[in-house]
Amino acid sequence: MLDKNGIAKRIAQEVQNGFYVNLGIGIPTLVANFVRDDIDVEFQSENGVLGMGPFPFEGEEDADLINAGKQTITTLNGASFFDSATSFSMIRGKHVHLTILGAMEVSENGDIANWKIPGYMVKGMGGAMDLVASAENIIVAMMHTNKKGESKLLKRCTLPLTGVGCVKKIVTNLAVLAVTNDGFKLLERAPGISVETIQHATEGHLTVEGVVPEMVL
């Protein structure tokens, strides 16, 4: 199965030339490290950065350059910085071509829960609410099961929702899945992972058609 970098590497294949891409907190922030060098992409963070680069090497961090998750970042030539009003105008105005988010749960109809676990203190939903309400192309990066081995791809989310029916594709440590009108559809398997393993780890309705290829990383 894939680790977090493997998930990010597979999602990087979804990024196309000329895209403006928003990277959510967690695994999505790693995607910038794996995008092909021959395509032109602008990574946006809702705290007001356009033109993020890969993570800095240890010792080269600049504490003034951070993403929405307060991680230190690098910027590419031509990067720009702006206030939150401008940043969320980009998001709400649908000027972001691809949004990549982490999630704690996703339902078979594309609902996403990624901001709160009951009983745990959180500062708020942050920019996730605007992203899921405005983005037309959302890919989720997540682990297929929780630490107890229970599925995080569900018939219905059990945690407070961030957005309803908004997720288009999911990349986990086990598989690539699309969200369809009939639930999850298995598109690719992680190297060495069987279809049966994925079926066992998926609570929501899962459609499997023909021979499912392994991911090419």
Strand content: 15-25%
Would you give the CATH topology? Glutaconate Coenzyme A-transferase
CATH class membership: Alpha Beta
Please give the radius of gyration in angstroms: 17 Å
**Roughly what is the average pLDDT, rounded to an integer?**
94
The poorly predicted ranges are: none
DSSP summary: helix tally: 4
- CA-CA gap between termini: 12 Å
Number of strands: 13
Strand order of the largest sheet: 4-3-2-1-5-8-10-11-12-13
- Shape from CA axes? globular
CATH superfamily: Glutaconate Coenzyme A-transferase
The CATH architecture is 3-Layer(aba) Sandwich
The total domain count is 1
Protein structure class: alpha/beta
Could you state the order of secondary-structure elements as H and E? HEEEEHEEEHEEEEEHE
Helix content: 10-25%
- Largest sheet, strands/sense/barrel: 10 strands, mixed
Summary tags:
about 220 residues; alpha/beta; three-stranded mixed beta sheet
Characterization of the model:
- By secondary structure, the protein is α/β, with parallel strands linked by helices.
- It has one domain: Glutaconate Coenzyme A-transferase (3-Layer(aba) Sandwich), CATH 3.40.1080.
- Helix content is 14%, strand content 24%.
- It is built from 4 helices and 13 strands.
- It has helices at 4-12, 84-92, 128-134, 195-200, and strands spanning 20-23, 42-45, 49-52, 75-81, 98-102, 105-107, 112-113, 138-141, 153-154, 169-171, 175-180, 183-189, 206-207.
- The strands form 2 sheets. Strands 4-3-2-1-5-8-10-11-12-13 form a 10-stranded mixed beta sheet. Strands 7-6-9 form a 3-stranded mixed beta sheet, with no helix packed on it.
- A hairpin with a 3-residue loop joins strand 2 and strand 3 (49-52).
- The two termini are 12 Å apart.
